[in-house]
Amino acid sequence: MRADYQKDGLLIVISGPSGVGKGTICSALRQRLPELTYSVSATTRAPREGEKEGVNYFFKTVPEFKKMIEHDELIEWAQYVGNYYGTPRRFVEETLKSGKDIVLEVEVQGALQVKQRFPKGIFIFLLPPTMEDLKKRILHRGTETEESLADRLGVAIDEFKQIHHYDYVVINDEVERACDRIEAIIMAEHCRKDRLILSQG
Ligand SMILES: Nc1nc2c(ncn2[C@@H]2O[C@H](COP(=O)(O)OP(=O)(O)O)[C@@H](O)[C@H]2O)c(=O)[nH]1
Ligand SMILES: Nc1ncnc2c1ncn2[C@@H]1O[C@H](COP(=O)(O)OP(=O)(O)O)[C@@H](O)[C@H]1O
To answer: Is 172 helix (H, G, I), strand (E, B) or coil?
Structure first.
């Protein structure tokens, strides 16, 4: 008897430190792999210039976010540098059930919670080529004060210690090369899923 999860889509978690390029890589993947679905997170942080409600995030007040937690509307949530972030449950579950693959872009605490609930997920840790590159990327993005830069680098060092929980490490040296690696991982995971389905009949 074939288990239900084998008919479900793949849950792909892209994680890693702030500024490593998760957002950049996910946008590039969207162009390359339009058949993938991307989860939109809820957050209490203020929108940055150009960010749109329901596209980049669902922007919530703290009481609204806490209500989502109470009502079990989030698969995972985490507090990150003073704000709450979480993945709405229903959209992810419905997408997987419909057989489509879904990509979650989350920081490390959240990724570990997702792993507990979805142990068959594919967990990818993005690494910067060096810490200096990471610092430059965060500064180049121009969204951080000196204080929040230091916070984010401190969090990054703790996050590297969790790499052993992940299935894959991908170095984001160049965006296209990192996407090639992620695309190869997804293709290989589909082949593995096909093998499981065929071998179990
Ligand atoms: N746990 C969790 N983390 C999230 C979620 N959405 C985004 N994040 C992460 O929260 C961190 C901060 O996100 P953001 O403020 O947009 O800054 P940036 O990703 O560093 O540009 C990043 O590491 C995101 O990947 C989520 O739904 N859950
Ligand atoms: N491979 C790369 N090479 C150089 N710069 C990059 C690369 N990937 C991302 N960046 C830059 O690094 C900064 C942080 O990227 P972003 O996608 O916002 O990271 P994250 O979502 O992980 O916080 C952005 O300015 C982005 O243009």
So the answer is: coil
